[in-house]
From TrEMBL:
Residue ranges of domain HTH tetR-type in the record: 13-73
Pfam families cross-referenced by the UniProt entry: TetR_C_41, TetR_N
The keyword Cell membrane belongs to this UniProt entry's keyword annotation: no
Protein name: TetR/AcrR family transcriptional regulator
UniProt-listed PANTHER family: HTH-TYPE TRANSCRIPTIONAL REGULATOR BETI, HTH-TYPE TRANSCRIPTIONAL REGULATOR RUTR
Gene3D superfamilies: Tetracycline Repressor, domain 2
Organism domain of life: Bacteria
Keyword DNA-binding (UniProt): yes
Record-annotated DNA-binding residue ranges: 36-55
Organism in which the protein naturally occurs: Nocardiopsis codii
C-alpha cells in the first residue's frame, strides 16, 4: 500500500467515525425523527457526498449507530458475566449489567425506543439476538445443562427474559426513582430464582 493510499484510507475511516459519532450524539439528543441529514453532515464537518459514500442515507447511518450501541452493550454484558466462574453468577451479573447499561440516555433512546421503530421489529430483534440476547441464550443453556435450571426449551425462555429486561430497562430509564435499579433488580432476581431447581 502506497503512502497516498494509506492516507486516503485513513481519511475515509476518520470521516466514517465522525459521521457515526455525530449521528449517535444527535440521534440520542433529538431522536431519529428530529435529526436531518444536513444537521449530521454539518456536525461531522463533511459533505453530503461523503455521507453517501459511506451510508445509503439516514436509515443506514442509524442502523450502523444502533449496531455500535448494541455491540457496546453486548460487550458490557459479556464482560460482567465473564468476571464470574459460577454459571448462576454469570447469568445474574450479565442481566444486571444489561439493566444498568440501558439507563444511559443514548442507549435507551437509540437501542430501546428508536431502534424497533426505525428498523422494524423483526430487523431489530435480529440485531438484538446477535448481541445481548445471544449471551443470555448461552448462559441459560449452560444452566439447564448443569441442572441449575429445570430442563426446558431455552429459546422461548431466553425470549421471555430478554423482553422482560428490555421493558424493565425502558421503564428504568424513564424513572426518576433513585432506587429504581435496585427495585427492578429485586423483581428480576426473584423471577430468575423461581426458575432454579431446588
Amino acid at each position: 500500500m502506497s503512502a497516498e493510499t494509506g492516507r486516503r484510507a485513513g481519511q475515509r475511516e476518520r470521516t466514517r467515525r465522525a459521521l457515526l459519532r455525530e449521528g449517535r450524539r444527535l440521534f440520542a439528543e433529538h431522536g431519529y425523527g428530529g435529526v436531518g441529514l444536513s444537521g449530521i453532515v454539518e456536525a461531522a464537518e463533511v459533505t453530503k457526498g461523503a455521507l453517501y459514500h459511506h451510508f445509503e442515507g439516514k436509515p443506514d447511518l442509524f442502523r450502523a449507530v444502533l449496531e455500535e450501541v448494541q455491540g457496546e452493550v453486548a460487550d458490557t454484558v459479556a464482560g460482567a458475566a465473564d468476571a464470574h466462574g459460577d454459571p448462576w453468577d454469570r447469568l445474574t451479573a450479565g442481566c444486571r449489567a444489561f439493566l444498568a447499561a440501558g439507563t444511559a440516555p443514548d442507549v435507551r433512546r437509540i437501542m430501546l425506543v428508536d431502534g424497533p421503530a426505525v428498523l422494524g421489529w423483526s430487523a431489530w430483534r435480529s440485531l438484538d439476538e446477535a448481541g445481548s440476547a445471544h449471551h443470555l441464550h448461552e448462559a441459560l443453556t449452560d444452566l439447564v445443562e448443569a441442572g441449575v435450571l429445570h430442563p426446558q426449551p431455552v429459546t422461548p425462555l431466553a425470549h421471555l427474559l430478554s423482553g422482560a429486561m428490555n421493558e424493565a430497562a425502558l421503564w428504568l430509564a424513564a424513572s426518576e426513582d433513585p432506587d429504581g435499579l435496585e427495585d427492578v433488580w429485586a423483581a428480576l432476581s426473584g423471577m430468575l430464582e423461581s426458575l432454579r431447581t431446588r
